[in-house]
């Protein structure tokens, strides 16, 4: 099995993943894959290598970042590709849990 999970260097803050982490293929190029933790990632080679393409898109509220069990809040839960415009995308999250 091939591991395509984005990673950060150990000296950077840990990534926060949602239980239902979004994975989206570009409608313009099937080699391009997007996913999100608290930041948005883009792979130009179907997950072999990743680039962070955004800063933290959540409130990063320490009181809300870790839930119970495997639930983590302040994470990206939705990625919308704008089909008419290559390179444009939107990230979303669950507002009711205190993330912007």
Write the layout of secondary structure elements.
Elements: E1 23-25, E2 33-36, E3 40-43, E4 51-52, E5 78-81, E6 89-92
3D architecture notes:
By secondary structure, this protein is mainly beta. The chain has one domain. It is 0% helix and 21% strand. The chain has strands spanning 23-25, 33-36, 40-43, 51-52, 78-81, 89-92. The radius of gyration is 14 Å and the shape is globular. It starts with 22 loop residues before the first strand and ends in an 8-residue tail after the last strand.
Mean pLDDT: 81
**Strand order within the widest beta sheet:** 1-2-3-4
Radius of gyration: 14 Å
Q: H/E element string?
A: EEEEEE
Query: pLDDT below 50 for ≥5 consecutive residues: which ranges?
Result: 95-100
Largest sheet entry? 4 strands, antiparallel
Helix content: under 10%
Q: What fraction strand?
A: 15-25%
| Overall SS class | mainly beta
Task: Please state the overall shape, judged from the principal axes of the Cα atoms.
Answer: globular
Keywords:
100 residues; mainly beta; 4-stranded antiparallel beta sheet; two-stranded antiparallel sheet; 6 strands; 0% helix; disordered C terminus
What would a concise description of this structure say?
With 100 residues, the protein is an all-beta fold. It has no helices and 6 strands. Helix content is 0%, strand content 21%.
């Amino acid at each position: 099995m091939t591991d395509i999970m984005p990673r950060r260097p150990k000296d950077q803050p840990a990534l926060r993943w949602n239980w239902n982490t979004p994975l989206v293929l570009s409608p313009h190029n099937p080699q391009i894959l997007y996913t999100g933790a608290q930041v948005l990632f883009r792979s130009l080679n179907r997950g072999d290598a990743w680039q962070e393409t955004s800063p933290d898109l959540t409130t990063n509220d320490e009181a809300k970042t870790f839930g119970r069990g495997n639930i983590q809040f302040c994470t990206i839960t939705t990625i919308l590709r704008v089909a008419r415009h290559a390179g444009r995308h939107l990230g979303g999250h669950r507002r009711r849990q205190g993330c912007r």
